[in-house]
Specification:
This protein is α/β, with parallel strands linked by helices. The protein has three domains: 16-107, no CATH class; 125-363, Aldolase class I (TIM Barrel), CATH 3.20.20.70; 369-410, no CATH class. Helix content is 30%, strand content 15%. The chain has helices spanning 16-22, 37-40, 43-48, 54-60, 66-75, 85-88, 99-104, 174-182, 202-213, 227-230, 237-243, 263-274, 293-305, 329-339, 400-410, and strands at 133-137, 140-144, 189-193, 220-224, 249-253, 279-284, 308-314, 350-354, 361-363, 369-372, 376-380, 386-390. The chain has a nine-stranded mixed sheet. A three-stranded antiparallel sheet has the order 10-11-12, with no helix packed on it. Strand 7 (308-314), helix 14 (329-339) and strand 8 form a beta-alpha-beta unit. 37% of the residues are buried. Residues 134, 136-137, 140, 142, 191, 361 line the site of pyridoxal-5'-phosphate. Pyridoxal-5'-phosphate binds at residues 134, 136-137, 140, 142, 191, 361.
Length: 411
């Protein structure tokens, strides 16, 4: 056997810790209790009132750690600090290791770059035929729409350009991007990304979707966005009514921890699902956040309750300054094998490594095929029990030739 565990990692269903992870709660109002509902629920108000400086962080969070204070000073030269008031309210200021805090409050460790870390870990800039497009796979293309997000994830794989703090000066040219897609008939799938495409106004986004839909070889559109998590107020009925005109349109959200799935988020995702938009989730495996089977499982279950199919679990890219957030591949494999078979198949994401340097996403899976022999494949199940499936080395079902021979003998 390999070193992979086959244990059940179960938290009793009535454990208070598990209950608190799985309960849908509102983010509440926190410091903004006197703001009228009409403003709080307005996504533009949330954007205007983001926490973007060390001074604001210190004001709203007296428990700010020295390493966070230092990190926040540094942020505006690397990847900007930005947190919507809504999302800020999910931080537990009394907990140094709050999983929300680790994701959005910079720490001074971001200044340390390991030798294998890079500013463009997936080699996107070398696969870019025109600015703002990454064309790595034969039939689909990544279309960057903006360099802005509602809040900034400290492990952002695209921090070289996102938020423009590092001076990349990203200027998408939709005309050139669309022209390349028009002239490349092998592309049948366009993935809008950024930055966050849902920061565009409804009108701008609609004009882009309309132009892409007008290209005859485009079959499938999708949007990668963390807005439903950082800014659920943006998911208005008007936005959903617009999006539903561009089907088939899928949406991939990005959530990492069960506490991100609030009642506000559940309602926003419900509006998208009701507009017929299939929803997937992409998580990043992160130390201090979700590198634990019980937490991961609670998150996956909550996603299903929000009608979201867990799509990918990413090994954290080798982005400069992310060592303090990186969980190991071994831990990722251990979590995956503690999930497979132990819970709903629909709940399981595909664990992938986006190959350093630009090879694309590579699936990494616990080993279930123990050996291929001359007459059988040897397998293990989720409990570690061994099973055999008869099959010859050339793939033909064992015994079939023998049966036929005896049949022809009879004839
Ligand atoms: C992730 C990614 C895609 C989409 O890959 P899927 O496996 O189809 O989801 C496309 N292009 C680039 C550059 C990507 O990084």
């Amino acid at each position: 056997m390999t070193d992979q565990t086959c244990e059940t990692v179960e938290e009793p269903p009535d454990s208070p810790w598990l209950q608190s992870l799985k309960t849908f709660r509102s983010a509440g109002r926190g410091f903004w209790s006197d703001v009228p509902d009409s403003l709080w629920n307005d996504w533009r108000w949330q954007m205007k009132n983001r926490i973007t400086s060390r001074e604001q962080l210190e004001k709203y969070m007296p428990t700010l750690l020295p390493e966070e204070s230092e990190g926040s000073r540094l942020a505006n030269t690397k990847l900007a600090l930005g947190i919507t008031p809504y999302f800020f309210n999910l931080i537990d200021a009394t907990d140094e290791n709050c999983p929300i805090r680790w994701q959005v409050i910079p720490r001074i460790q971001e200044a340390s770059t390991a030798p294998w870390e890079m500013s463009d870990p997936c080699g996107e800039d070398t696969h870019s035929p025109v600015p703002g497009l990454v064309h790595r796979y034969p039939d689909r293309v990544l279309f960057m729409v903006t360099d802005r997000c509602a809040s900034y994830c400290r492990y952002c794989t695209r921090s070289r350009l996102v938020s423009n703090a590092a001076g990349y000066d990203f200027h998408p040219d939709f005309d050139r991007q669309i022209e390349y897609i028009q002239n490349t008939p092998s592309i049948r799938d366009v993935l809008l990304s950024g930055g966050d495409p849902l920061l565009l106004s409804d009108d701008k986004l609609e004009s882009l979707l309309r132009r892409l839909r007008a290209i005859p070889h485009i079959e499938f559109l999708r949007i990668g966005t963390r807005i439903p998590i950082f800014l659920p107020q943006r998911i208005t009925p008007a936005l959903c009514n617009m999006l539903r005109n561009y089907h088939p349109l899928f949406l991939s959200i990005h959530s990492n921890h069960p506490r991100e799935l609030t009642t506000e988020v559940r309602e926003a995702l419900g509006r998208l699902a009701d507009a017929g938009i299939p929803l997937g989730n992409q998580s990043v495996l992160l130390k201090h956040v979700n590198d634990d089977t019980v937490v991961m499982k609670a998150h996956l279950h909550k996603l299903l309750m929000c009608r979201v199919k867990p799509y990918y679990l990413y090994q954290c890219d080798l982005i400069a300054g992310s060592s303090h957030l990186r969980a190991s591949v071994r831990q990722g494999l251990k979590i995956m094998s503690e999930l497979r078979g132990h819970t709903t198949g629909y709940a399981l994401p595909q664990y992938v490594i986006d190959a350093p340097g630009g090879g694309g996403k590579i699936p990494v899976n616990p080993e279930y095929v123990l050996s291929h022999n001359n007459d059988r494949v040897v397998l293990r199940n989720y409990e570690g029990k061994v099973f055999e499936y008869p099959e010859a080395a050339d793939g033909s079902p064992v015994g079939v030739k023998l049966v036929r021979k005896s049949e022809s003998d009879l004839a």
